[in-house]
Specification:
The complex is a heterodimer. Chain A is an alpha/beta fold. Helix content of chain A is 33%, strand content 21%. In chain A, the strands form 2 sheets. An 8-stranded mixed β-sheet of chain A has the order 6-7-8-3-9-10-12-11, sandwiched between helices. In chain A, strand 1 (27-38) and strand 2 form a beta hairpin. Chain B has 14 helices and 2 strands. Chain B has a two-stranded antiparallel ribbon. The chains are: A alpha/beta, B mainly alpha.
């Protein structure tokens, strides 16, 4: 296992290296941690993330604000290099470790092998350059081509993402585009070099619901076309159910549950995931009130000693002996379904059925 | 675009009329007595009265003003009845002191002011924006702290202090530079551009020390803000080289406030850097304006004030045009 820096003393022990059973995965993330030194202390934004992904697959990373979803994606993109963030662990992408790869090597991968779609396309697109120019620019970084060829490629891509009369729209500025069109342009920019891995950081959050559906359809369509791997970061479980193959639920910078999408929804193993599902508004809900998970997420400056969800967990007492408050549970993976919880399977089933 | 130019030209004329009227009024209200000044040491009341007539000051205030403004559009006659002389268009009047055409005085002083302004401007823009950008890129580092500290010192040093210090060290003690001479007022003169640079280097540095401090701070603050924008992250995510991210995506977006400042400062500086010209004895517009104001030379004061206002207004129009060139969202209707 490669580690840039030893974990600072006083941090909870993270898991040691896994036996190399899953080598050769397209993307293999092992024990990825991100910490930010601040004036108030060290913020542990991501704590020991493990997951892997194959081409053609879609992984949904779900969690509330501040759970470390976006930081994980930025660490994978190497966008935290050159900042004060301390990234440790390993992220093997086609055999290259994205954590230790120097900025120059990372730059070769960005855009060409790993594309990224951001949340708010209005602020993520440069206001002073035409949409077409920005897409062509992304093409020109990684392809030896003339400006004319880049323009043709960009116009073609704009057409592929469903922008009408792309030849004219090429010369327009982001502020001339509607929200949905802007996100399409953003997708065109991320896909112009046909990257094998696409990271979409809340791609539909800034859009209204009908446009959301269109954008999701477009993304799955293009993913199928290019057989790329997709990491979809979202806090919207509906989006996850729609297009993801597997799901990773994050809480306080940790993965608390992971597995195939059906199992996460129908064989939920973690009380936090249960709470998330329960808090979703349903059309049949009779009370008309939402069911939020009570309490606040833990401070990332000072994570609790035990299970990081224990303070908000209704069922912490069921595990007995105050184990939830004193001992951090490991992520236990069984048949591809992982959970980080002291409660045993039968207890969870009981809890689920009482709901 | 054409409508924009028309509108701005219209407001330019209105502003110039307002500025000139205010200057004229202030002059009338003030203690200046150009007639007795012009008539010299041994003056009888009769000669003062003659001088008043010769200067046109026997007319009512408004008539004087209108006479003056008429000269801006057509030639006019100036002087006591019987001893009139023609003042060619654009007539800015004749100096109460020397009876010279004010336009000639301006034409003589302007090259000095331009020489001062151009060099100082280049020096402080390059150093201010360059250092500000460097500080922003190295935010929080020792370099950043040093630059910000130096900027605070620079902005708190008044021109008389920096100017005299520079003169003392580089001219008086080290003999590295000549004392500023009036013989050079353009890089195209017989002495060549190098002599011009050496001649004006100290005033440039004195002005640059004062001005670049503000530019460093504005550039730094704006660039730090811009570098944290989402579109910078997008640019990096495309795999662009750091240079492209910094300059093409960062600087272009973060530079607009500096352009505004620059426009204002160019306008101000072209009207004459009063203190700097005094310290370095450069007979530019500022220098001339101070002498004219002290000696009650209304036409010269008027002309320089209006010229300064003209420069400020034109600089503002240029800023607006530059804004439109930089930011497509403010393209002119």
């Amino acid at each position: 296992m490669t580690q840039l820096q030893p974990s600072p003393a006083g941090q909870p022990a993270t898991r040691t290296a896994q036996p190399a059973t899953r080598t050769g995965a397209f993307l293999d993330v092992r024990n990825l941690s991100v910490k930010f030194p601040t004036d108030d202390g060290l913020v542990s934004a991501v704590n020991g993330m493990d997951f892997s992904l194959e081409r053609g697959q879609t992984l949904g990373i779900v969690g509330e604000s501040g759970s470390g979803k976006s930081v994980t994606s930025q660490a994978l993109m190497g966008l935290l290099k050159g900042t004060s963030a301390r990234v440790t662990g390993q992220a093997l992408f086609q055999g290259k470790d994205l954590v230790t790869l120097p900025e120059s090597g990372m730059r070769q991968l960005r855009g060409r092998n790993i594309g990224m779609i951001f949340q708010d396309p209005l602020s993520a697109l440069h206001p002073f350059y035409t949409v077409g120019h920005q897409i062509a620019e992304a093409y020109l970084v990684h392809n030896k081509a003339s400006k004319k060829q880049a323009r043709t490629a960009a116009v073609d891509m704009l057409g592929r993402v469903g922008i009408p009369s792309p030849e004219q729209r090429y010369d327009e500025y982001p502020h001339h585009f509607s929200g949905g069109m802007r996100q399409r342009a953003m997708i065109a920019m991320a896909l112009i070099c046909e990257p094998e891995l696409l990271i979409a950081d809340e791609p539909t959050t800034a859009l209204d619901v009908t446009v959301q559906a269109q954008i999701l359809d477009l993304m799955s369509e293009l993913q199928e076309e290019t057989n790329s791997a997709l990491i979809l970061i979202t806090h919207d479980l509906g989006v996850v159910a729609e297009i993801c193959d597997s799901v990773l639920v994050m809480y306080g910078g940790q993965c608390v549950e992971s597995g195939p999408v059906d199992e996460i929804f129908y064989d939920t193993q973690h009380p936090y995931t249960l709470g998330l599902l329960k808090s979703m508004p349903t059309l049949s809900s009779s009370s008309g009130r939402l069911n939020p998970i009570p309490g606040q997420p833990p401070s990332l400056l000072d994570l609790p000693k035990g299970c990081i969800f224990s303070a908000r967990c209704e069922y912490a007492a069921l595990a007995g002996d105050g184990v939830c408050a004193s001992q951090r549970p490991e992520l236990v993976v069984e048949d591809g379904h992982g959970k980080r919880c002291h409660l045993r399977g039968p207890q969870i089933v009981t809890i689920r059925n009482t709901r | 675009m054409i409508r924009f130019i028309f509108r701005r030209t219209g407001s330019l004329i209105l502003l110039l009329v307002a500025v000139s009227f205010i200057t004229f009024t202030l002059f009338q209200l003030g203690p200046a007595d150009p007639a007795s000044a012009a008539c010299g040491q041994e003056c009888t009341p009769e000669r003062v009265a003659e001088a008043r007539v010769a200067l046109g000051m026997d007319h009512p205030f408004l008539i004087q003003y209108i006479d003056y403004m008429r000269g801006l559009v057509s030639p006019r006659m100036i002087g006591a009845p019987g001893a009139e002389s023609i003042c060619q268009w654009p007539c800015l009047g004749k100096s109460f002191q020397t009876n010279e055409n004010v336009s000639d005085i301006i034409a003589r002083s302007l090259p000095y002011t331009l020489s001062m302004a151009v060099g100082a401007l280049v020096l402080w823009t390059v150093s201010g924006v360059g250092l500000g950008l460097l500080a922003a890129l190295r935010k929080g580092s020792a370099t950043d702290k040093f630059i910000v500290g130096a900027a605070s010192v620079g902005v708190s040093l008044p021109i008389p202090v920096t100017g005299l210090f520079l003169l003392l060290v580089f001219v008086n003690q080290l003999h590295l530079l000549p004392f500023t001479t009036n013989e050079i007022n353009s890089p195209f003169g017989p002495q060549g551009p190098w002599a011009w640079v050496l001649n004006y280097l100290l005033p440039w540095v004195a002005l640059a020390v004062l001005f670049s401090a503000a530019y460093i701070r504005v550039t730094r603050t704006n660039m730090i803000e811009t570098f944290s924008e989402d579109f910078i992250r997008t640019a990096r995510a495309k795999g662009l080289a750091p240079r492209t991210v910094t300059f093409k995506h960062g600087v272009r977006a973060g530079i607009t406030p500096v352009v505004t400042m620059l426009g204002m400062d160019i306008g101000l500086l072209l009207g004459g850097a009063v203190l700097t010209e005094q310290i370095f004895s450069v007979p530019g517009l500022g220098f001339t304006a101070v002498r004219a104001a002290i000696s009650g030379d209304l036409p010269v004061t008027m002309a320089i004030t209006m010229l300064a206002a003209f420069f400020v207004i034109v600089a503002n129009v240029v800023v607006d045009l530059a804004y439109a060139a930089i930011d497509p969202r403010v393209r002119l209707q």
